[in-house]
Amino acid sequence: MEVPILKQGHYLIASIQSALTDADLSQLREALIQRVGKFRARGVIVDVTALDVMDSFAVRTLRDIAHMARLRGAETVIVGIQPEVAFAMVQLGLTLKGVSTALDLEEGLAFLDRQAQQRVERGQGRIDRG
Amino acid sequence: MATRSKEQPSTPAGLPAPMQDTAALLRELVAHLRQNQTQLREEWARRITRAQLLTAMTEEEIFAEATSVYDNYVEALETGTFEALQAYARNLSERIIPRGVETHEVVGIVLLLRDVLARSLFGKYHEDFDKLNRILDAYEPAANRIANTVAVGFVQERERIIRQQQEAIRELSTPVLQVRERLLILPIIGVIDPQRARQLTEQLLRAIRTNRAKVVVIDITGVAAMDSNVANHLVQTVEASRLLGATVIVTGLSPEIAQTLVTIGVDLSEMATVGDLQGGIEEAERLLGYKVVPLEELAPKA
Fold first, then answer.
1. How close, in Å, is residue A90 to chain B by CA atoms?
2. What angle do CA A61, A62, A68 make, to 5 degrees?
3. If you write DSSP's letter for every residue of B34-99 in order, what string do you get?
């Protein structure tokens, strides 16, 4: 089951529609990382609204996506974690520490916009040629 | 045991001989108890007062209830069925528990009645020892069962009420309140057991999603004591809220609780804390981009 990845401006949006096998998750990770480079994306949103359950492999994959994306210059936001899923995750100690999260797609996009804004304001990446 | 109507002095034909005997004895016993009901009830009520039971009730109330209990008792003896007695016991318990009547009192008065009636039987049959024995053989099992039914009925009613109250307390004390757009407040009061902690967290997470909250202020001013379990629940709640995109600010930590948390070694790096609720709300508003200023400061410049 291939996860559709949409491009919206400088952002990539991966919308998970149903439960994924470990292979599907790995494939998603590969696909996202490739496209971050190909489109020089600045942000990645992974929407897990449709997932009723997330196991340790899924959580680890999301973390990997976030770390890898950051290495390639993109900020990642996981959106749409359901209350029941969030509860189960913390009980099992599956954390997404260091990974940004937001309530839904709208919030996720707003977050990425703010991040981009802050990067501009901080002058991040500017090397003084003086 | 077959149910017999009170009016007919029936001959239970078809029953084995010993049972016939028991049935006849019980009828005789019940007749005696009915004949002497006024005097026996009064004797019983007197002994209740002497034993200082049912102090929460007035004498009139005791007498009224005594009448009902006595009638139900004799009825159970007569019919050998206990459903009516069970229903009555629960009904009675529902009425007297709010009055503060305790288990030992209920068990006490039933045993007193048992005793009063037994002594009355001694009095009547003391000259015929053999008959007395047979009467008691008929009486004892039934009387035991009655005492048991009433006591168990009372205790079950008490347990039902306790469960009800616990539920009410739980519902009372976990409101999640929206005080601004995207800002929720969860004031926690009282004791947090694992079940309540779980309920709190689930309620909060649902509220975050429904209200699209971005900041939550959890105030624990009213939390009496904090142990490692509660602290962990708190940390989990903060983390779970973050997964839904909400920032949590914990306020109202008493010096004792602050000390406990540090001593336990709970990971507080992810938890933002502010001393009191006011400070917490102000910080939350700041995070959301609000600034509260007195109206005077908004006056147009000259």
1. 6
2. 85
3. HHTHHHHHHHHHHHHHHTT--TTS-HHHHHHHHHHHHHHHHHHHHH---HHHHHHHHHHHHHHGGG
Which residues are CB-contacts of B16 (< 8 A; sequence separation ≥ 6)?
Answer: none
Taking contacts as CB-CB distances below 8 angstroms, the residues of chain A near B206 are 83
Mean pLDDT of A109-118: 92
**In whole angstroms, how far apart are CA B268 and each of A47, B70, B194, B262?**
28, 64, 20, 9
Coil, helix or strand at residue A27: helix
Bigger pLDDT: B117 vs A13: A13
- In order of A43, A62, A70, B284, the CA distances from A33 in angstroms are 11, 12, 10, 36
H or E element that contains B190: strand B183-190
Type of residue at B98: P
Q: Is the ipTM of this complex over 0.90?
A: no
Bin A125: left if φ > 0, else alpha if -120 < ψ < 50, else beta. left
Q: Which has the higher per-residue pLDDT, B5 or B43?
A: B43
pLDDT at A80: 96
Quick one: chain B helix, strand, coil %, rounded to 5? 65, 10, 25
- The pLDDT tens digits for B36-49 are 989 998 899 889 88
More confidently predicted of B16 and A99? A99
CB within 8 Å of B68: residues ≥ 6 apart:
B88, B92
The whole-model pTM stands at 0.62
Token representation of residue A6: 């949409």
CA B102 to chain centroid, in Å, comes to: 12
CB of B230 within 8 A of CB of B200?
Answer: no
Q: A125 pLDDT exceeds 70? A: no
Neighbour-count burial for B120-143, b at 16+ CB within 10 Å, e otherwise: bbeebbeeeeeeeebbbebbeebb
Residue B98 contacts by C-beta under 8 Å, 6 or more apart in sequence?
Answer: none
Residue A59: the pLDDT is 96
Choose the mutation target among B212, B216, B232, B243 for the interface with A, i.e. most A CBs under 10 Å: B243
For B42-81, write each residue's pLDDT tens digit: 899 889 889 988 888 888 888 888 888 888 888 888 888 8
**Inter-chain contact B208–A83, Cβ cutoff 8 Å?**
yes
* Mean pLDDT calculated for residue range B122-130: 89
| Cβ distance of A101 and B242 shorter than 8 Å | yes
